[in-house]
Specification:
It contains 4 helices and 23 strands. It is mainly β and about 270 residues long. Helix 1 links the parallel strand 1 (about 10-15) and strand 2.
């Protein structure tokens, strides 16, 4: 590891252990060496310990983390307001057996961090409670221009926030395969696209502050609620919604209407953002 960790002279890391040390340094600026790929089938095949993030910023330089595996804890605990850019997690495997598990957790009030231009894909299995992101206090906006492709089984929530303040997604593309998921999916969507399918009825709760978003649900019952009401325009593909699904404060559109720019402009979707 080189550098002094300042904004002008950030830590430059290449190994996973150096990365853990650097991001755990309070107030540090961290960059991953370009073209870095970490394969955790080789580095930690039996599972990873939780990594605490105390630094100010992480520039991943499109670093790829392949096959990270965690059980009964989280991959990252963000105890600072760290900004994370271009750090990609592929084919992660999260298991919540006897305790909660997930990718990110934040538990200090008003501490949240931000992720931008990151990619996430993998599987989350929850016998106990499992999440992608668990925020124990107010979460606000966190994810910007990120993509997600997640398969979930069991007791899973994409995000969870205390006081009904869910981490929000701005200009993101989210795909969820919710096989036999039993918990409410609470999400904040801002100018984002969500595609999800579920074998059983789930409750999709769109948090206050959502705006100009499209969801492509494939549902069997359950409900879709836009709590922001008229202040946010949420569109849904009507072709994937069963007749026993309850829809509140959501504009249902046919697949043809969702592709029709003239129609979308007429209802105000392509304006104001």
């Amino acid at each position: 590891m080189t550098g002094t960790g300042t904004q002008a002279d950030p830590y430059i890391v290449e190994s996973w252990e150096d990365f853990r040390t650097a991001v755990g340094t309070s107030g540090a600026y961290v960059e991953v060496k370009p073209n870095t790929v970490w394969n955790f089938n080789e580095i930690a095949p039996t599972g990873l310990a939780e990594t605490t993030i105390r630094c100010a910023q992480i520039n991943g330089n499109d670093c790829e983390l392949w096959h990270p595996y965690v059980r009964d804890h989280f991959l990252f605990y963000n105890s600072s307001d760290a900004i994370i850019n271009k750090l990609h997690l592929f084919e992660f495997n999260v298991e919540a057996g006897s305790a909660g598990a997930g990718i990110f957790r934040t538990s200090t009030i008003h501490t949240q961090g931000k992720c931008s231009l990151c990619q996430f894909s993998g599987t989350v299995t929850g016998a106990s409670y499992s999440y992608f992101h668990q925020a124990s206090h107010q979460a606000s906006d966190i994810y910007y221009n990120c993509s997600f492709d997640i398969k979930a089984v069991g007791n899973f929530e994409m995000v969870w926030g205390s006081y009904m303040d869910y981490p929000k997604f701005t200009d993101c593309n989210i795909k969820l395969d919710c096989s036999a998921v039993t918990l409410t999916q609470g999400m904040g969507l801002v100018k984002s696209q969500l595609e999800y399918s579920a074998d059983t009825a789930i409750q999709l709760y769109i948090d206050v502050g959502s705006a100009l978003s499209v969801i492509y649900p494939k549902t069997k019952g359950g409900s879709i609620l836009n709590d922001a009401g008229a202040s946010a325009l949420i569109l849904a593909d009507s072709s994937g919604i069963s007749s026993d699904t309850t829809v509140t404060n959501v504009t249902l559109c046919t697949p043809e209407q969702l592709k029709n720019a003239e129609y979308l402009t007429s209802i105000g979707f392509l304006t104001g953002g």
